[in-house]
Amino acid sequence: MDYGRLERVMRELALAAGEKIMEIYDGPDFEVRAKDDQSPVTAADEAADALISAGLRDAFPDLPLVTEEQAESHAQDVSTFLIVDPLDGTKEFVKRRGDFTVNIALVEDGRPTRGVVYAPAKGRLFYTDAEGVSVEETGDLAAETRGETRPIRVAAPEAALRVVASKSHRDAATDAYIGKYEVADMKSAGSSLKFCLVATGEADLYPRLGRTMEWDTAAGHAVLSGAGGEVVRFDDHEPLGYGKPGFENPFFIAYAPGVTLETA
User: Is 85 part of any known ligand binding site?
Assistant: First the structure.
């Protein structure tokens, strides 16, 4: 794999997709439809998916592609593949709350090794570089001109933790698990931004006790891994793998390695 080329392509496609998404986000009211699983979908999801899918298939025709918006791609049995959520956090998008992202990742042998997470409404862009080190890019965030980047790294947690949890999917089970820890600060965030907050050291722990799919998590997982963090299954604390049947995740915990995990 030419990781330098992959970095360039994923970054440019994420930024271009973000521009498409923001055109719709900042425009007049848009239609919201329900998919078969009753999750919402908009023209922004579809436009971003078409752009990203075409770009990835053109650049990497030999790599399988899994994307949320193409149901036929979910039947694949693969361990090395590209995986896309063109608009993660559609509920946040619909409510115009800004906590949505473009997610693109490479999974190799069941492990997310490279990824990009772009939050266009917040102007934050995170990705793994060609060496697998995670960075945040600042500046104008233009596809054609790379801005300044800085490596990001998980924090060394204090005794009392900074916890981030889902904004739209928080429940009593999540609160009960968080209650097992001494908590210094609690914040809510949408989409894969939660992984990135742990990756930058803005949070120490992100537990998810709810249904997610691999396209929801792969890019954020890659960014967190490249910043020194870990993502494990909630039940047995084994590493969260990818390429599972149907690409569905179990409950999981994303965290800085200095955190001593509590049992379920």
Answer: yes
